[in-house]
Design brief:
By secondary structure, the protein is mainly alpha-helical. The chain has 5 helices and no strands. The radius of gyration is 25 Å and the shape is elongated. InterPro entries: YjiS-like. Pfam families: YjiS-like.
């Protein structure tokens, strides 16, 4: 019985430490993200308003924004970049 209580207590302590470290990481991330411009945050899909609320609003993304971005958007852009060859300028013909 005593061993079980000790194990439960240690488990609870470790869980609390893990939670504290997780929240601390989110707080540091939020602090760094606040340094970005509104345009940069928008490009990342991060809401400055949610970011200012803090850790409780994590992941700081507006749900409707993330729903609008298709899962394959990076794949499509990568294919476009590969298939589009640069166009060379034409040289004028001599008269």
């Amino acid at each position: 019985m005593i061993v079980g209580k000790i194990v439960n207590g240690l488990s609870s302590l470790v869980g609390g430490i893990n939670e504290g470290m997780r929240l601390s990481g989110y707080a540091r991330t939020a602090q760094e993200l606040r340094l970005l411009s509104d345009k940069q945050l928008a490009d990342l899909g991060i809401s400055r308003a949610l970011l200012e609320i803090g850790v409780n609003a994590y992941p700081w993304k507006a749900e409707e924004i993330s729903k609008l971005i298709p899962d394959n958007v990076t794949t499509l852009k990568a294919k476009e970049a590969v298939t589009e060859a640069p166009q060379m300028p034409r040289t004028p013909k001599a008269a």
